[in-house]
Design a protein that fits this description.
Blueprint: E1 10-16, E2 25-35, E3 38-43, E4 48-52, E5 56-61, H1 69-82, E6 87-91, E7 94-98, E8 108-111, H2 117-128, E9 135-139, E10 152-161, E11 172-174, H3 179-184, H4 191-194, E12 201-207, E13 211-219, E14 225-234, H5 243-257, E15 262-268, H6 272-280, E16 284-293, H7 294-302
Parallel strand pairs: 8-9, 14-15
Antiparallel strand pairs: 1-2, 1-5, 2-3, 3-4, 6-7, 7-8, 9-16, 10-15, 10-16, 11-12, 12-13, 13-14
Helix pairs in contact: 2-7
Length: 303
Amino acid sequence: MVDLPAPGTRVSLRYRLPAGAVPPHTDVVGHLLDVGATVRVRNRHGEVVDVAVDDVLAVRVVPELPVRTGEIRNLEHAAALGWPGTEQHWQDGWLLRYGLGSTRRANSAVPLRFTSHAEIAAAADWYASRGVPALISAPDRLFRVPAAVPVEAENLVMAGDLGDATGAPEMTLTARPSASWRQVNRRDVPDEVLTAVVDGVVVFGELAGAAVGRAVVTEAPDGTRWVGVSAVHVADDVRRQGLARTLCAGLLAWGREHGATRGYVQVVADNTAARALYESMGFVVHHRSRYVRAAHLLETQSS
């Protein structure tokens, strides 16, 4: 039997076709979804190819396709619209977001176009007038953080095609977080922040008071409609039962029904369990991001 790498790995897999086929074997290139009795590979078109493990002839790990800077910018734009806080302001190609001081994501500036001292200083003033420190979201290649400046909360931005994502009939969908949703996700994030979206649609999913999450569909400047999954929590007494996977699959299917063709999640870099879950669902690391304080940047520039 051929040794197979972990789900989420991009591979070139050669497999045997049914008896009498000409040629007798073929290849598929894509990301491994499952490696059990049936090996499942999602190709770049989002199609899933199922192969009996006994028919696998050879497998080779293939490097990830390089991600262009424009692709990072498009995804970051869509994600910013999907978690925009309660107040937004465009500042020369930067999107400044304020969300009542709740969560870094809703209270940070996203440098989607230009970056100079002027944008950093303007962001610092805008946030100071709202009584919160100016945080800048610094995605790979969109914002260069000087080596001497400390960063916070490194995240992996993972992305994948939706392919054949199927719904979860047992999942309840609501436009706002319900009381039972809040019982599972106890983070003190105001409803105004959770339900905010710009030019998109948001939903809250729940599996019988055991697992909850949020999904939002927004559009990037290149026309791609993305569904972002966030705020996923599973009750302590029912963990390790596959509920997070069922919930996320249902939220991704909801996104597809609302026109999304690709999905993304933002995972804290050291959360290996979450990363493994999303990799097993066909997501791969698209780029990384972290937060940096504008005050630290301005101090560095003035010294």
